[in-house]
Model the fold of this input.
Amino acid sequence: MIKLSLDNVCWNRKPKDRNEIGVISLSVPKNIVNISIEELANNITQPFGKSWCPAIFRDGIRSNDTFVSQQIFGLDIDEGITFEEMMERCNKYNIIPAFVYTTFSSINKNKFRIIFVLEHEVKDKRVRNLVQLALMKLFPEADKSCKDASRLFFGGLELIYNNYDKTINIPELIDSMIAYMYYVDKVNATRNIKDFCKGVGVNMVNGLPNIKIIDEEDKDKTTDNNMSIFEDLVTHPIIYYRSVAQNFKNYSIDFSEETIMKNNDISKSNKTKVKYNISDTKEKRNNLVKRFNWGDLEDNCKLYKEFFNGSHWAYHLELFGIATNLLAIEGGRKKFFEILNQDERYDIKNWEYQCLYIDKKNYTPQRCNNFCPMCGRKLI
Done:
């Protein structure tokens, strides 16, 4: 169930004049609902077409200053990309929407709204801004006004896609955003990533956002008693989250100290856009495992054996998990790409970037039970 702001009034057309929009603007934030994703989709398409806000607000006042929390995120697409192209990008970068619906002005699906559901509610506006702007980097075709925390969405015509159980999580979203930025503009990617981090106030490590995955071995550093305590406190720079995703258990987001002092309102015009001073620390890659017995790995790991001999097509999450393990072994990178090159369906350019990203993030080998259905221990 998701908490959001949903109007009670039904519409079969787009509200037009100031009076209509003014009434909606005042009534929506006063009606907070706890609703399933499917119920929301049905309420905002025909025959209902209700207006809504992804966030909830204090005192029934819709503004960035009264923001309370948000779990659902929307993007408006009016031009620049078709529905089919949008879905292709979602699938390529493994950021899947919960549903998509056409807007009131749509003709033949040319205008639509993409709805993503984060796996947990966020109460810190810095985190909300991070998620929203990352989605907009993945889809630069989206209406720029979607960045506003108090954004009001009108209802629409019809559902054109749904996958109601699908959620996104922050580490995967940031990984996918960076992969896309490298893919579309490799020359300027480093600068563009730094600009993004300055805009959202996230510190960097090795030129990438400092969003760290916390493995089971580090559980004592982030116990159940303090995992989410800072999520409600905007006076603290580091925020911890428990993840319900299969491949990430817990993670932290390292915000600049300046985000505590400055008003982190991204709804301002480009001329007054806030830019934070952020740090960019350097970390060396952990030492590689040497003299590794590849024969033992093939004998003991069914996933690796079938991936190696080509009988198993590995999806993105499986490949990423395999890569974090193989790249920690001397000669593992070469072996990984030898296997990929045996099947033309694998996107070699994308995985060259992914491996560079794993190195820069200094990812430790993922546990097999985080990405593989065949066993429950690390490959190495």
The chain is about 30% helix and 20% strand. The first strand starts at residue 2 and ends at 6. Residues 219-230 have pLDDT under 50 and may be disordered.
